[in-house]
Design goal:
The chain is of the alpha/beta class and 327 residues long. The protein has a domain of 207 residues: Spore Coat Polysaccharide Biosynthesis Protein SpsA, Chain A, CATH 3.90.550.10. Helices cover 46% and strands 16% of the residues. The chain has an 8-stranded mixed sheet. α2 links the parallel β2 and β3. α7 packs parallel to α9. The longest helix has 19 residues. The model has no long low-confidence stretch (mean pLDDT 92).
Length: 327
C-alpha cells in the first residue's frame, strides 16, 4: 500500500503549477499519489493537469470553495495514512518523501512532521522560512506557554486519522494552519526534520501577500483560541473581540514584515534596486524586527514562536472573556 498522498490545492496556479507537479512526480520515492483538487480555477491549471499522463495523479474538481474547505476535503479523500502538504507554487526537493519516510519509520506514532523551508527561487531569494525548531516536547511547551508554533504550512506532513480526530482545519479562520498546529501539538507529537525539504515561493498574488494585516488579526485570534483552551474559558467570536485584538497589533513590525516580504519577492524577480529600497524601508519601519529576523537566520533558535506576550491578553481579560465575571 502507498504510504503518501501529496495534496495539491489548485486555484489559478499557472505559471508555477508545472514546476510544483514535476517536483512531486520526480521524487526519489515514486510510490505516491498526487491528489490535485482544482478549486474553481479559471486559468489553464485544469487543462495542464489533464494533459499529464501519470497514473499516480488524481484530479478532483469543485466550485471555488476556498483553501480551508479544500484542505478538509483533501483529508477526507486521502487514501493513505499520511498527507504531504504542498502548495501549487512551491517546489519539493527530490528527496523530500524519502526523508519523511525515514522519519515516519523512526516515529510511526507521530501526529505530524515538518521541515525547514527555503525561499524560492534559490540563488535569488534569500533566507529560510522562520520556524520553530525543537523536539516534540519543546514544540508542545511553546503551545502550553500560550504562544503559537511557527511552521511552514506546505512543509507539513499530516497523519490523516489523527488530524481528523482533532477536528481538521477549523472553518472561518484565515490562519487555519496555525490553529491546527497548536491543537496538534497539545494532542500528539510533532517532529521537526532539520533539513530543507521544501522551496517556498513568495508571490504578490498569494493570500498571505494580499492580506498581511488581516492575517495578523486572525493570528491573534488563533492565539486567543489557544489561551481560551489553556485557561478553560469560552472564546467569543472574532467579530466580538476584533477591536481588543487590534489593540494588540503593533503597526511598525507589521509594516517592516510587509517590506521585508516585498524585498524577497523583488530579489526573486531580479529587481535589485527595488529590493534594496524595501530592505531599507523595512529597517526604518522597525529596526528591532529586522534585527530579530537576522538573528533568527544566523542563529536558529528553538524558542522561535508566533504571537504576542500572553500577559497582554490577560490585561484585557474582562473584555476578551466576559463570562468569567459571572462564573
Amino acid at each position: 500500500m502507498r504510504l503518501f498522498t501529496v495534496g495539491l490545492p489548485v486555484h489559478n496556479a499557472m505559471p508555477y503549477l508545472p514546476e510544483a507537479v514535476e517536483s512531486i512526480l520526480g521524487q526519489s520515492v515514486g510510490d505516491l499519489q498526487l491528489l490535485a483538487i482544482v478549486d474553481g480555477s479559471t486559468d489553464g491549471s485544469l487543462d495542464y493537469l489533464r494533459s499529464i499522463r501519470d497514473a499516480r495523479l488524481r484530479i478532483l474538481e469543485q466550485q471555488h470553495c476556498g483553501i480551508t474547505f479544500t484542505l478538509n476535503r483533501m483529508l477526507r479523500e486521502c487514501e493513505t495514512s499520511w498527507l504531504v502538504r504542498q502548495d501549487a507554487d512551491d517546489v519539493s526537493t527530490p528527496d523530500r518523501l524519502l526523508r519523511i519516510r525515514e522519519a515516519i519509520e523512526r516515529y510511526p506514532e507521530a501526529g505530524m512532521f515538518y521541515s525547514d523551508a527555503a525561499y524560492h527561487p534559490r540563488g535569488r531569494s534569500v533566507g529560510l522560512y522562520r520556524c520553530t525548531r525543537g523536539t516534540p516536547e519543546q514544540i508542545r511547551s511553546v503551545a502550553r506557554s500560550g504562544y503559537l508554533p511557527a511552521i511552514c504550512h506546505p512543509s507539513a506532513t499530516l497523519n490523516v486519522q489523527k488530524t481528523l480526530a482533532i477536528g481538521g482545519y477549523r472553518p472561518g479562520i484565515q490562519c487555519e494552519d496555525a490553529d491546527l498546529w497548536w491543537r496538534m501539538a497539545l494532542a500528539y507529537d510533532i517532529h521537526f526534520v532539520p533539513e530543507v525539504l521544501l522551496l517556498y515561493r513568495q508571490n504578490s498574488d498569494s493570500l498571505t501577500s494580499r492580506n498581511l494585516r488581516q492575517q495578523a488579526l486572525h493570528g491573534l485570534y488563533v492565539q486567543y483560541l489557544l489561551l481560551s483552551q489553556l485557561q478553560s474559558r469560552v472564546p467569543q467570536r472574532l467579530s466580538d473581540v476584533e477591536g481588543e485584538l487590534l489593540a494588540l497589533l503593533e503597526e511598525t513590525p507589521l509594516l517592516a514584515k510587509e517590506r521585508l516580504r516585498s524585498f524577497n519577492m523583488h530579489l526573486g524577480r531580479g529587481e535589485r534596486m527595488a529590493a534594496l529600497s524595501d530592505l531599507v524601508g523595512s529597517f526604518v519601519a522597525s529596526p528591532g524586527y529586522v534585527l530579530r529576523r537576522m538573528r533568527d537566520e544566523l542563529v536558529p533558535s528553538r524558542a522561535i514562536s508566533n504571537g504576542v506576550e500572553p500577559r497582554l491578553f490577560q490585561q484585557r481579560k474582562d473584555l476578551l472573556w466576559p463570562e468569567h465575571l459571572s462564573a
